[in-house]
Write a structure and sequence with these properties.
single chain; mainly alpha; two-stranded antiparallel sheet; two-stranded antiparallel ribbon; 2% strand; disordered N terminus
């Protein structure tokens, strides 16, 4: 009598699975390699110590994972790195406090003011999560933050940083154009080669396995190598630090004249990461449940926990703000890695957080990163800042925002003009509004002001519905 052979075991790890120790270390290291380029570059662009950011974001990831396990009995498998969404707002505060654009790291007293803003992002995420849990779903949040608002804010963040990217790429850091002030050709060559490398690696390595997930890191390496014969790399910093050193932790400061500006200007940028985080949760939930089904196990249904996920995002930001790191977000590139490897193990992500923390204590690593020329960072910034803007457009397309609708047009147009125009056209991105000068001594932060105006305009249409919406509601 013939017997049916047992079905082969489907390889993969679900969120609550713990791989063998050796595998867990390798899987964790792979997560670190995936998040490393973006997190390090983000720290550099915001002028934060890389060692501190690696340590604190690693710790924040551990806190987020443990928090999800305690809250729902399941790990929500997401890795938290630095978010590019806050660069424009942070840059405005840093420059307003007198830090030159070509400085490598901002002093602690400046970082302490910026991190007060990151505390605000944490609070906003937690409040958004509570609203979703109380109201029963994402629909309630969309009434306050519809795609036209979140998408337009993302466009504003990316394109509003265009001048900063070009200054870094050219080496011309003056706020106004001066006739005869030309970029250093060597500096410009390094930045353009870096940009070209990022483009080539992104396009032609796509679908080529793990190496295809590292276009930014590979481009940075190319730019760095090119910069050496051009004399743009200063090797004197290497060897200045001990093999093991304590990262510089900074507590937030709430008594500076710019603290309230930082809280408003940086805090409001959390609205750009909320839809991103929600999309990542839906994405990873889909693949986790698919693997569970293949393995004949109970589905996790992580998409049910949107509110919890946002609250955990906020908790992660509070950790970063309390210890002097950049505000974070869960990384789509690490999600892609999990899908490719079919490894959604929470313990392996915790291992990645531990590895990231250890890297932050290695002095020579910080020394080596500090030698990356601003020209190389500028070449990458042109690409990455533009991508932030394009993702905002993609979000509105995916959500089918009707740009023939006068309401949507007005809201989006206002956010774009006030945010981009104000960020580029006025000193340090502050609008010269002569109101609440005690709160905003340098003016109103342009991108945050544009975002708030867009939110208020949308709320008007929620309370006082346009005629066509009233007609549609009665059909």
């Amino acid at each position: 009598m013939a017997t049916t052979a047992p079905a082969p075991k489907v390889m993969g790890y679900l969120p609550n699975d713990t791989p063998p120790f050796g595998q867990m270390v390798l899987l964790g290291l792979q997560h670190v390699l995936t998040m490393f380029p973006a997190t390090v570059l983000c720290a550099i662009l915001m002028k934060f110590p890389v060692s501190t950011v690696l340590t604190v974001t690693g710790f924040g990831t551990i806190v987020a994972l443990v928090g999800s396990k305690l809250a729902i009995g399941k790990y929500i498998p997401l890795y938290y790195g630095s978010s590019f969404s806050y660069i424009a707002a942070v840059t405005a505060i840093v420059i307003a406090m007198g830090v030159p654009n070509d400085a490598a790291v901002a002093p602690p007293e400046v970082i302490s003011v910026v991190t007060a803003g990151f505390i605000a992002t944490g609070v906003i995420n937690i409040v958004a999560g509570l609203i979703i849990r109380a109201s029963g779903g994402k629909e309630a949040l969309d009434k306050v933050l519809p795609p036209v608002v979140t998408g337009s804010v993302a466009v504003t963040i990316g394109i509003g940083l265009g001048a900063t990217a070009l200054q870094m790429a050219s080496g011309v850091f003056s706020s106004t154009f001066v006739i005869g002030e030309l970029a250093n050709l060597k500096w410009l060559a390094a930045s353009m080669i870096t940009l070209l490398a990022a483009f080539i690696f992104s396009v032609y390595l796509q679908g080529k396995g793990f190496i295809g997930m590292l276009p930014v890191l590979l481009a940075a390496i190319v730019g760095y190598i090119v910069s050496i014969p051009l004399g743009l790399v200063n090797f004197s910093a290497i060897g200045q630090s001990e093999l093991l050193r304590l990262p510089e932790f900074v507590l937030p400061r709430f008594n500076d004249p710019l603290t309230v500006t930082a809280i408003v200007g940086i805090g409001i940028m959390a609205i750009a990461t909320i839809p991103e985080s929600t999309a990542h949760l839906y994405q990873i939930s889909l693949y986790v449940d698919h693997l569970a089904e293949e393995q004949g196990k109970e589905k996790y249904n992580l998409s049910r926990y949107i509110g919890i996920n946002l609250m955990i995002d906020g908790l992660n930001d509070l950790v970063n703000g309390l210890f002097g790191s950049t505000a974070g977000t869960n990384y789509g590139e690490n999600n892609s890695l999990m899908v490719i490897t079919r490894n959604y193990s929470g313990p392996s992500l915790i291992t990645a957080g531990v590895i990231s923390m250890i890297l932050g204590f290695i002095g020579p690593l910080a020394d080596a990163i500090s030698t990356i020329p601003t020209a190389v960072s500028g070449g990458l910034a042109i690409y990455l800042f533009g991508v932030i803007g394009m993702q905002g457009i993609a979000l509105m397309m995916a959500e089918k925002v009707n740009l023939y609708d006068p309401k949507q047009l007005a809201i989006g147009a206002t956010i774009l003009v006030v945010g981009i125009g104000g960020n580029i056209g006025f000193a340090n991105g502050f609008l010269p509004v002569p109101i609440l000068t005690s709160v905003f001594p340098y003016g109103w932060p342009a991108i945050a002001t544009g975002a708030v105006l867009g939110i208020l305009m949308n709320l008007i249409t929620v309370w006082w519905k346009p005629p066509f919406e009233r007609v549609a509601a009665h059909k």
